[in-house]
Design a protein that fits this description.
Elements: H1 5-19, H2 27-34, H3 38-50, E1 54-57, E2 63-66, H4 75-82, H5 101-122, H6 125-131
Antiparallel strand pairs: 1-2
Length: 137
C-alpha cells in the first residue's frame, strides 16, 4: 500500500504540530524539516484547517498550530481527508489471468485494504508520537 503525497504531507504536518501543540510553525518550517514542497504543503494545511485539525495564525510571525485531539484523532482520520482507501481502488488492480483468478485476487486485495483501514483507525496521533519517542509513555 502506498499513500498519496498529500496524505503523507498531512501526516508529517499533524505529527510535527501535535508534537508540541503550543508551538506555532510556518509552512516553510515544516517543509524544511521534511524536505518537501512548501507550495504543496500549504494546500495540505488548508485542507487540515478545514477539517479542524490545525489553526492558522495570520500576520507577521504567523503559522499553524495543532487544534485536534491527539488522543482521539487517528491516522485514518487524516488519511480520509486526502484519499479513500479501498473504495474503487481495488477494482481494476488485477487484470487478465485465468477465469476465477482475477475475482479471487481482488477479494484478497479488498481484505488487505480492510485490514489497513482497521489498523490506521486504531492508531492515534498520541500513540504514534509515543512510539516515535516524541511523547512520554
Amino acid at each position: 500500500m502506498r499513500l498519496q503525497k498529500s496524505t503523507q504531507f498531512g501526516l508529517y504536518a499533524v505529527l510535527e504540530l501535535a508534537r508540541n501543540p503550543e508551538r506555532q510553525l510556518s509552512v516553510l518550517d515544516i517543509a524544511n524539516l521534511y524536505g518537501i514542497s512548501s507550495h504543496h504543503l500549504a494546500k495540505v494545511l488548508r485542507d487540515l484547517g478545514r477539517a479542524g485539525l490545525v489553526d492558522a495564525v495570520r500576520g507577521a510571525g504567523g503559522g499553524y498550530t495543532f487544534s485536534g485531539n491527539a488522543r482521539r484523532t487517528t491516522l485514518m482520520d487524516i488519511i480520509n481527508i486526502f484519499e479513500d482507501i479501498g473504495s474503487d481502488e481495488t477494482v481494476g488492480r488485477v487484470q487478465g489471468g485465468y477465469e476465477g483468478v482475477q475475482p479471487a485476487l481482488q477479494l484478497v486485495l479488498g481484505e488487505i485494504d480492510d485490514i489497513a483501514k482497521a489498523t490506521f483507525g486504531s492508531i492515534t496521533i498520541e500513540t504514534l508520537l509515543k512510539t516515535m519517542g516524541w511523547r512520554k509513555k
